[in-house]
Specification:
Helix content: 10-25%
CATH topology of the largest domain: Porin
Radius of gyration: 27 Å
Strand content: over 45%
Keywords: Signal
Distance between the termini: 67 Å
Largest sheet: 8 strands, antiparallel, barrel
Protein name: Outer membrane protein beta-barrel domain-containing protein
Organism: Spirosoma profusum
Length: about 210
């Protein structure tokens, strides 16, 4: 009989200890029992301040080796507008160096392109329950292109291009406000008959790695 009383006492003690632990555990741990940590709210449900929704970073793009040679950099500022949507702006600079070959096999002087401008973009996580961190991506890039013919007397010509780009971005989070992003876009305004577009963009497809 005494053994039964001891067993009941130990069972009651363990049960009360478990219940006390559930009531006193860390709130940051308890939030994971319901929903994932939010990107726009604190664990207590209060909206995050504007500054804590901002992301800063950038990336490299348009990397081509050989002829033509090109490389680009793009600083970015993004804002977590909602749990599933990011909006942002960025600057763009691309350098391209190209040597054309005529039909007779002769080469012409190098052409240098300095491409600079700005862009605005929107990213929307459209199927988080199936593929989290996969975003639809749309942006508008406005670019000025400066073409320099490298001869004894360099001649400079300027062009302006506007490129609407659509595609997807996969973001691998490193922290709540920083991640590695792989973006694949299609240039809706690409014209294969345009020599400037061919030399600067290479193709209607734009691949980009960025960090923000």
């Amino acid at each position: 009989m005494k053994h039964i009383h001891k067993l009941l006492f130990i069972t009651a003690l363990l049960s009360s200890s478990m219940a006390f632990g559930q009531l006193t555990e860390d709130p940051d741990d308890r939030k994971d029992q319901g929903r994932d940590p939010l990107r726009t709210q604190t664990p207590e449900g209060r909206p995050l301040p504007f500054g804590q929704r901002l992301r800063f970073g950038g990336g490299i793009s348009n990397i081509r080796l050989g002829n033509p040679f090109s490389i680009g950099v793009s600083p970015v500022v993004a804002y977590q507008a909602t749990e599933r949507m990011l909006i942002g702006i960025g600057g763009t600079y691309n350098y391209t160096r190209y040597k054309a070959v005529t039909t007779t096999g002769n080469t012409v002087p190098y052409l240098t392109y300095n491409q600079f401008g700005g862009r605005g973009f929107v990213m929307y996580e459209f199927i988080p329950s199936i593929l989290p961190n996969l975003y639809l991506h749309g942006e508008l890039e406005n670019t000025t292109i400066q073409q320099i013919e490298n001869q004894n007397n360099d001649r400079t010509t300027s062009y302006a291009l506007t490129a609407p780009l659509v595609g997807v971005t996969y973001s691998q989070p490193i922290s709540r406000r920083f991640g590695v992003n792989l973006t694949a876009l299609y240039n809706l305004n690409y014209n294969d008959n345009s020599g400037i577009a061919r030399q600067v963009y290479g193709s209607p497809f734009v691949l980009r790695i960025s960090f923000f």
